[in-house]
Amino acid sequence: MSYLIADQVGRLAQLSPDDLVNKMLPPDSTHNFEEQRSWRESLYRLIQIVNTSGLSDLWLIAEYSLIGTHRIDAIICGFSRLFGRPLALIVESKQWNKIGDGGAQHADQVKMNFANEYRMHPVAQMFQYEHQLETNHSVVKADNIQLAVLAFMHNLPESQKPKLFTDEYRAFAQYAHLVFVKDDEARLTHYLGSLFKKCSGEQTAKQFLAGHYELSRADFFGITKILQRKDNAVMLADQIEVSLAFDQLCAEFKKNPRHMAMIVQGSAGTGKTIVGLHLEYLAVQRHLIPLRRTIFTFAKSRMLHNILGQAMSASGDPRQLPYLDMLSEHDYSLVIIDEAHRMSDVPQHIYTLVGPNTRPKILVFLVDDHQCVHVKECGTEFVLKCALLTAGITPVCKRLTVQKRCGFENHFTAVLRHLFFDEQTPSQEPAASQFQVTITDSLSAIDKRLKAHQEHGFSARWFAPMDWLRRRSREFGADDIFIRDHDGQEFSKEWHPYPHRLLYEWYKSQSAKVVDQVGSIYCAQGLDYDYTGFIWNDSLRWDARAKRWVYCEKEHQDLSFKLGITDALKVRNFNFPSGAVTTLVMNQYYILLSRARRGTYIWFKDAATKRHVYDVLHAAHIL
Fold first, then answer.
1. Is this structure's pTM higher than 0.85?
2. Is 390 helix (H, G, I), strand (E, B) or coil?
3. How many helices (H) and strands (E) does the chain have?
4. How far is 560 from 566, CA to CA, in rounded Å?
């Protein structure tokens, strides 16, 4: 993870405020005036206090990035006075000089001295950062560095401080001693002296900076935690913004019950399902909406439906989760729809849920426009907005952009979106990542690697487009996929288990035998694995002369997909734009290629397609 400065406090203390800012500004700086003012005032003052406390040998790391745009203002590194262990002190700095009156909509947010402007409570902020490091920072997670926290609010008068710990903020009162305000320098000096030994903090700083972010597994089994009144996952980066927006929506709903909606758009791996489960937790625990009046449902996915249903059953919850098509209005106050992009009749679904004489409710749609895979799937953000506005509901729209599946520092999914949909890739070169992409000409080599990963405790699966028919007879060992590899060897596999009720075991299995079965688009959406192998056959090829993707219908054996197109063309006035079929197939490839958390292996049948993909990945520093 990146940072702007890491140095000994004594050396930093010799800099003037302007010199400190200049030392921190990178050549291609995008840091605005307010950030620079914070460094010039708050950070400079913090450094002087630490230095005059007799702790000049400690080290300070400034603007340490977490995920996305979130950064820790300062981390002071040294050794614990009590235990002698490496210690990192998280400092959350605020420039506030007044707390607004009238209260906030939730205790995590503080009303500023401006109309309708809210900021996260400093205590909530510092503990959130601590939780993120404990959960995802490799060195901290391994308990090699102890953490401590404080909030530094040197502009806030002492008379304003009680507002942070009364009324709706009472829960934070026990941490008031960790918040240091104006004229609190003597108390801060004493606190720092009680934490740190008077010795060099260089070793701790370097150890901390050598750590990397590790993605903690948070999947559909998080539903069991919600049913036990526990949270399912730590919200990270843009997920936090979605949670805060949902908090405000719930607060408004409680004051004035009416139909409301939120659309959360996010590409593959940004954690839409995890966010959805977390929002259900917030509704039940924080806003006291009865669990029986909340429902987490799916537009279509039988795979996800089975996995979530069996996870709920394992937790002792007897509820049955209906598909959206089977969902009656009932008396729900919250309906969360995952895979909403797969909805086929958006206006009718919305009418059923929020039509005349229905109970006021909040609708949450989890969407990725590029994961529509059949011609009748039309639950895009635009279509949802139009249908909601027609129903008299103005939705709150939020976007998840930070990749959380294949490593926080990896932009493989963004590059896939550029490859298929010409979306702009991140302008900056990605930081070093543990995620690996390997292009190889040997299917058997990939197979050996996947089985080795599976045998060593990692999850590994094959995926491929539906370019081979599934055998009607399911005798054991009857293969469906036959390929003559580039070296002339025969390669064969069978498709994943069917019917879908059998996929739960395939998804969670740790047996190496699952590598002998290949996953398709019908068991991929919403799920991920440590490693994947992808067979890029000829149903989607790159036309180097025309410089465009081409759908090869004769290679594609997905009968359900083709039948849907045939049926759609029979419907009068059906809007079927040119290139729509190719786009749907590109969506399928995009989904299948984005299932891995640690690494993916890709085999190509077509040389021109391989060359194009290689060039795009190489230009994006993926290979």
1. no
2. helix
3. 20, 22
4. 10
